[in-house]
Amino acid sequence: MKLLTHNLLSSHVRGLRPGGGFPLQIQASEVRVRPVPFNAAFVARLVPRLRWAALLEAAESLGHPSELPPEPAADYEGDESFLRRVHHILLEVEVLEGVLQCPDSGRRFPISRGIPNMLLSEEEA
Amino acid sequence: MQPPPPPRGCRMEHEATQLEKQHVHSVYENTAAYFNDLQSKAWPRVRNFLLEQKPGSLVADIGCGTGKYLSVNSQVYNLGCDYCRPLVEIARKKDDEVLVCDNLNLPFRDQCFNAVISIGVIHHFSTKQRRIKAIKEMARVLIPGGQMMIYVWAMEQKNRRFEKQDVFVPWNKALCSRHFSESNQSGDKGEFVHAVKTQDIHPAQLVISDCSYQTNLQPETDSKHSPSMEHCLSRACCMKISEEENRFYSALGRSFRSWFFSRSLDESALRKQTDKMKPLKNEGEWASSTVPIQHSRHCSLDLGHHGALLKEQSLDDDDVFMESLPLKKPQWSPAADSLKDLSLNGGHQSVAQSKSEEAAFINGPVENRDCGCGCNKDGAGKSNTSKFFKRTSTTDSTDSALDSAVSVGDQTDATLDTKAFMRYYHVFREGELCSLVEENVPELQILSSCYDHGNWCIIAEKRGT
């Protein structure tokens, strides 16, 4: 699971308050870093779609502090060094084994071989 | 107009869940390991839809299976998800970004994807409400202006159509060997082909399955021979695959012998479900709308009109399985034989599932597969077929689909494959998918719809700015 994916994930346990399932807290037991070809335009387009604070928090929790500012600068699109750091944290850091925990309900979703299992039981859904 | 549904929501929902658990999820899970992506080609229209997304887009494939669409456009971020963990694991081996989840409860925040595809998925939901919910969930995660493409299996097929909309489709593992699939998945194809070449296999010695189909040459074939037979089969498969991979795989899809019809769980469809076989109107239109890459034909079995149906069926043209294997046609035709012991007591007879065949069929409705129609071409087959299908219970609005599903007759002499699994489909009539969206998912606006190789396809856009 890449951190870009994590940034989109939300718990949907029944009964949560709106937004109560995001962001999922990551408890990782195995993390991998693997290079991915950098594409500035690609990354620049992703930036506005991200929940920035959740991204920073996730990076920290993995022990990969992102060295990113609290908010993207206004001219981020032209800042290659910024984009490379975003690229790294979004796409090159992966959680292979661990758990995602719903902030409000505490429900834990396992990640195994890089695959999060977000299935809920019939009662929880 | 349909009457409003009686207030049985909870029970219906539970039955729907159980039906899908047994006849969708369990089938895919048990057969996933045999699945081979060679069988499934990316559909041109779907490919184009994906390629048209702007670079940097976030694209979700809901019901991604083994992820064949996840590598089409490398300029976008592709995220695949599927209910079936084994299938997702296969996608993962290709380094796809995937997760396991439920279409009815997508684990994504609102409005995060630029595009969503749902290819051959919605037709597995057993009630209208669940199909609507699946579409609404996908709409929820789309950004305003984002687009969704949905493919579902059509009731109207080229030259024929399904008699009913809610069907169980069986298939069995006999048609593709574990050896073959596993070795292919591990990428050892070269080695396997080598093994094949060193074998001295006389086509006449090949048998189709470890416990089912009889061949003309070995009428005593039975399950005791399974190990060697499976091996023979794998060699046969292998030989063919090395020469004509695509044909072999598409042939597996065509080997489905028959269809079982279930009652629709939809309360609104509790009226009589007998449809007469009708010729497709605008048949020429179907033909001309097909994309000239693969060729698809799914047979439908008319419970009451098998004569007419058989007349319509032609066991095909260039894609006929029999022609691509050094086996005689009759060895492949006995659908009746293969289903003798199947009963639909909640599908408990389903044992091992042939994953590669399942794979062929996973993409069956969406891919272009010629269906090996479940009827024998000879006279004997015809009568077998007609004895074959019968209803287990009379229609009753309180019946579950499983209770009233057709069970196989026990009139055939051949050894039977008791390992077939039944997959549930709700096939869509023309206009049904559009109406479903127009009437129930106001947040989506339909941009286009078409018929593509036996499927109804729509592209819809999320309203709003």
Summarize the structure.
The complex is a heterodimer of chains A (125) and B (465). By secondary structure, chain A is α+β, with helices and mostly antiparallel strands.
What would your notes on this structure say?
The complex is a heterodimer of chains A (125) and B (465). Chain A has helices at 3-8, 40-46, 52-61, 80-92; strands at 25-33, 93-101, 108-112, 115-116. Chain A has 125 residues and is α+β, with helices and mostly antiparallel strands. Chain A has one domain (3-13, 20-116): N-terminal domain of TfIIb (Single Sheet). In chain A, strands 1-2-3-4 form a 4-stranded antiparallel β-sheet. In chain A, a hairpin with a 6-residue loop joins strand 2 (93-101) and strand 3 (108-112). The two termini of chain A are 23 Å apart. With 465 residues, chain B is of the alpha/beta class. Chain B is built from 15 helices and 14 strands. In chain B, strands 3-2-1-4-5-14-13 form a 7-stranded mixed β-sheet, with helices on both faces. In chain B, strands 9-8-12 form a 3-stranded antiparallel β-sheet. In chain B, helix 6 crosses helix 7. The interface between A and B is medium-sized, with 30 and 30 residues. Chain A: It is found in: Cytoplasm, Perinuclear region; Nucleus, Nucleoplasm. Chain A: One of its GO terms (cellular component) is perinuclear region of cytoplasm.
